[in-house]
Amino acid sequence: MSAHLRVVIVEDDIAVALINREFVASHPGFTVVGEAHSGTEAVALIEKLRPDVVLLDFYLPDFSGLEVLSRLSLDRSSQLEVIAVTAARDLDSVREARAKGVRHYLVKPFMASALFERLDEVLKQFDTMRRSSRGKLLDQLSVDAIIASTGGRYAPPPKGLSDATLQRVHIALQSAGTDLSAAELAERVGMSRVGARRYLEHLVDIGRATLTPRYGGAGRPENRYRSPS
Question: According to CATH, what is the number of the domain 5-132?
C-alpha cells in the first residue's frame, strides 16, 4: 500500500473547511496535515509543511487563492498538486487557474463523490511517479505516464519573469488558434520581441507550449510557438 498523501486545506469558511477535512480524512490514501483560513496563512503553511496536495479556495479575506500560488517559492522538483475548490466560475478565473497549473477544478457546491474522483486521480498520478522512480531506466510507457502526470504542475517563473505577464502571454497564445512567432506574440501582448521570447521559452520548458522551427530561405529558421491544447 502506498504512503498517505499529505493534504493542506485552504478555506476561509471554518465550517466548510471542517466538512472538506472530513471528506478528505474519510478517503483512503490521504491525511490532512494543516488548515489555513487566509492567503497569508496558506502561503506560510504550505511553505512550512510542503504538502503533496492543496485543496484551494479562491475567495480568501486578504488575497485570492490564485495569488497564493503566485507567492509560493516551491522549487520545480516539488510535487505539489492543487485541487481548486471554489465558487469562482468566471472564465478569467478558470483560465488563470489553468495557466498556474491547476488541473483539478471543483465548483461549489459539489457532491463528496466529485471530490473523491479528483482525489483518486491525484493518488493515481503519485503512484505512477513512485513506481517509475524505483528503476533508473524507464520504458516509453513509463515516460509517457510521468509526463502526463506532471505536465500541469505549478512552477514559479524564473527570476525576471512575472506571473501576471506569463499569464497574459499564455492566454494570448491559447486564443491565437495557430502558431505564432515571438514577434507576433509581442505585438498581440504589447511587449518587446526579446521579452516575449523569454516568456514563450519558459512556457515550452514547463510544457504549456510547443516550439517548431520553420525553415524558409537562407538564414536561421524561425521559431514558431503554439499552445498544445
Answer: 3.40.50.2300
